[in-house]
Amino acid sequence: MNVANPVPDQQSPLRAEMIRKAIHATAAVMPVAYALFWISRSALIVLLLVASGIALTVEFLRRIVPSVQERFNSVVGTLLRPRERHHVTGATWLAVSCLVAVVVLPRHAAIAALWCATAGDTAAAVAGRTMGTASAGRKTLIGSATFLLIAVAGTLYLAGFPPLRAVVIAGIAVVAERLAGRLGANVGVAIASGVTAWAVSSGTA
């Protein structure tokens, strides 16, 4: 009797990416809570300090303790991109970049940076993977267009920037996301949108 060869699950990479981005999307609670005064700046800084501290500790330990690396891979290995298995993960970069944004930037600029780096980047990835034609790690026009719409909405209604400034901030964030290099989109988007928001924020804070 001939036994058919198992067919690889072509949906596995997409499923892993969707789970990854669903987790990523929960971070969008931060700019919403900060904008609506559900959390103070000091409390948000403490939260991000704890998250960043835990993430950096895990990053350090998994490089020097083989058992930690093995345990880490067994728990979240399916969600990691290939490069993240031996380098800093996107989640760690996200936590650290959000912390820096809240510490350094004025409130409205920090809200814009956090929103673009969490909700905007997630929306771009989901739209690009489900409606675009590129594989993971490649940018699509529909992903960038979705990013722009989500980023404009949050920068306008949460951060309180006027429409034109919101479009400028979101546009710069989209460019940063498309040009993201070795550090990934999280750091590039947070820095680009935050600095731009700070530069154009006169009269909005």
Give a nutshell description of this structure.
The protein contains nine helices and no strands.
Write the layout of secondary structure elements.
Elements: H1 12-25, H2 29-35, H3 41-64, H4 66-76, H5 90-104, H6 107-131, H7 141-157, H8 163-178, H9 185-199
Helix pairs in contact: 1-6, 2-6, 3-4, 3-5, 5-6, 5-9, 6-7, 6-8, 6-9, 7-8, 8-9
Overall helicity: over 70%
Distinct helical segment count: 9
Strand content: under 5%
Question: How many E strands?
Answer: 0
Order of helices and strands: HHHHHHHHH
Quick check: average pLDDT? 83
Contiguous low-pLDDT stretches (5 residues minimum) are: 1-11
How far do the termini sit from each other?
74 Å
Shape: globular
Sheet with the most strands?
none
Over all CA atoms, what is the radius of gyration?
18 Å
Structural class: mainly alpha
